[in-house]
Amino acid sequence: MDSIKKVQAWEIIDSRGNPTIAVGVELASGAYGEAAVPSGASTGKHEAVELRDGDQSRYNGLGVLKAVDNVNKILAPSLIDADPTEQLKLDNTMLAMDGTENKAKLGANAILGVSLAIAHAAANSSKKPLYQYLGQRESYLLPVPLLNILNGGKHASDSTDFQEFMIAPAGASSFAHALRMSTEIYQALKKIIKGQNFSTNVGDEGGFAPSLPSNQAALELIISAMEKAGYKPGVDCFIALDPASSEFYEDGTYVLAREGKRLNREQMVDYYVKRTEEYPIISIEDGMAEDDWEGWKLLCDAIGDRVQLVGDDLYVTNIKRLSQGIAQKSSNSILIKLNQIGTLSETLAAIEMARSAGWTAVVSHRSGETEDVTIADLCVGISTGQIKTGAPCRAERTAKYNRLLRIESELGKQAQYAGLASFNNLKK
Ligand code: PGA
Ligand code: ZN
Predict the structure, then answer these.
(1) In a designed cystine with 159, which of 129, 209, 280, 293 is the match (CB 3.0 to 4.6 A)?
(2) What is the pLDDT of residue 136?
(3) Distance 148 CA to ligand 2 centre (A)
């Protein structure tokens, strides 16, 4: 049995130039694991607490030195000599030390950094890549990537009301094929946007962020890009949306400012129904706001048999909120973000709960990312079937896709592309 010899955290910067935390775990054998924690912008209000210093004299108050200290001075001493393969036990130890419902005392960022670094160290100690350490299987499922090629909402300025317009190359024959298809569509989109004299600058997740008049204009551009690149919309490649609607929900009204629309929940549902009839939309995340449970139910009753409805801010990777959604049939899928909940064990429990209900689980990055690629291994290791990690642009996004390319290549015949079958929550 190997044991934890040293746990150390330090402050780094993320892809938006804000501080975040990195943690290294060293074992007695010399094996080492490291992880860095991402950070959101359109953060759900029920997420676990991301501890920030609030000291305005450094990083505009966004420093994470308290979280770093909590790792080095509080968590580390309690983990020394522990068996790194006992992930659940160690995660529970950290939860108990924090003692709060939302990890407000030590910080979900501090706890997650340690939790993931322990898993990496244990995998290295067992001489397995992380995905194999997380799930030893005969064959592995490579996820369908959901690539956010057009950014709006909080991830761009002066762009669409909806936050994310993604493409889902579910008709590809392998992950490498899916990524090639997506990248060709991304490049075609750039040419089209340029041709229409819009800016080709990119948003936080690497997607273009043109100043379009409506969400429909964005959908039209994406369909044109698929066709220009030589792919069939609705066969080779589908559209996935993340409106992130909590961001434009004001006092019970969904406000689409760019289109000059103010919609109640019934009208918002109707808006989605129409769009899904006009375009090959296979997935909608956060179509309704984080506490509009009634709206979610309406949407799921309307299109839940044919469109994947993913709860992000609604569930915040938390099994308490997820079990409510399952009981009420609020959606048919959950978005999985490790830092919304703060430990690997709780994340795995959320995925497991979703699966047992016949739902899908889409593993996701955050808009503020690092070069950490843990989510790529997580998807493959437990065969989630779908990943969302931005456009095929900007190294913090491509790092995850490139990790998946490497895994697919190293697995050879043991790798299977999840494809359309990964939408097992849909009837047709
Ligand atoms: P965030 O956005 O990382 O800024 O919260 C991602 C999402 O809403 O899915
Ligand atoms: Zn989202």
Answers:
(1) 209
(2) 87
(3) 11
pTM over 0.70: yes
* Angle, in degrees to the nearest 10, between helices 265-278 and 215-228: 20
Indicate whether residue 40 lines ligand 1 (CB < 6 A).
yes
Whether residue 295 contacts residue 302, with contact meaning beta carbons closer than 8 Å, is answered with no
pLDDT at res. 428: 65
317 CB within 6 A, ligand 1: no
Is 228 designated active site?
A: no
255-276 residue pLDDT tens: 999 999 999 999 999 999 999 9
Residue 256, CA distances (Å) to 81, 154, 161, 267 in order: 55, 14, 6, 12
Over the stretch 363-398, which tens digit does the pLDDT of each residue have? 999 999 999 999 999 999 999 999 999 999 999 999
Q: Check if the beta carbon of residue 34 is closer than 8 Å to that of residue 120.
A: yes
Pocket residue to mutate for ligand 1, from 364, 369, 370, 397, most atoms within 8 A of Cβ: 364
Q: Which of 269, 153, 270, 162 is nearest to 217 (CA)?
A: 162
The dihedrals phi and psi of 131, each to the nearest 5 degrees, come to: -60, -35
366 lines ligand 1 (CB under 6 A): yes
Residue 427 a catalytic site member: no
